TrEMBL record:
Naturally occurring in which organism (per UniProt): Prymnesium polylepis
InterPro entries (alphabetical): P-loop_NTPase, Small_GTP-bd, Small_GTPase
Name used for this protein in its record: Uncharacterized protein
GO MF term (any one): GTP binding
Keywords, sorted A to Z: Nucleotide-binding
Compositionally skewed regions (Polar residues) per UniProt: 181-191
Pfam family, one: Ras
SMART domains tied to this protein: RAB (SM00175), RAN (SM00176), RAS (SM00173), RHO (SM00174)
Spans annotated as Disordered: 179-199
Amino acid sequence: MPAGTGGGRVTECKLVLLGDTNVGKSSLVLRFVKNQFVHDQCTTVGAAFLQQAVPLDDSEDKIQFGIWDTAGSERYKALAPMYYRGAEAAIVVYDITSFESFEGAKKWVAELKQQGQPNVVVALAANKCDHADYRVVLEREGQAYAHEHDMAYFETSAKTNHNVRQMFVELAQRVPRKDQSALSSATTLENAQPKGGCC
């Protein structure tokens, strides 16, 4: 656990984003890391890797997220276990205007629970809440599912920046503190896999 510039400790944490294609995973990460929103965000190819530190409450300590933004398309789903293996935290994303993506999120959660770390901290992101007029997945449905599976729940919008940082901060608070880096395997994957880009 390296020391932070202000004297606090920095805990490295591998975080993975999962969800079907076009639910806004990349947009959420881009908003969190760079505070940017791109209307026509290109579909992620393989996976993209970014890093961002989150200060912890009442402390000089920080969580340094190593964020894997995975592709949601069917052709890349077989690669997902490479990215969530060893992850201490995960965000499963669906689009509130797509019931199919909500059902897809349930499958991602089941796969993560079966093959991921036993103590992985998970948040369920009901994304694109700025499109409330086109909502087909009710907030109470998402909340109930998250509660049933012991996940944090957030209605998010990368476009308006609603709840984006709050979600990552909540995950940082929930991640168990540890002394060993969780990013060693992530660094290896980063060097081996292509970055996200347009298809």
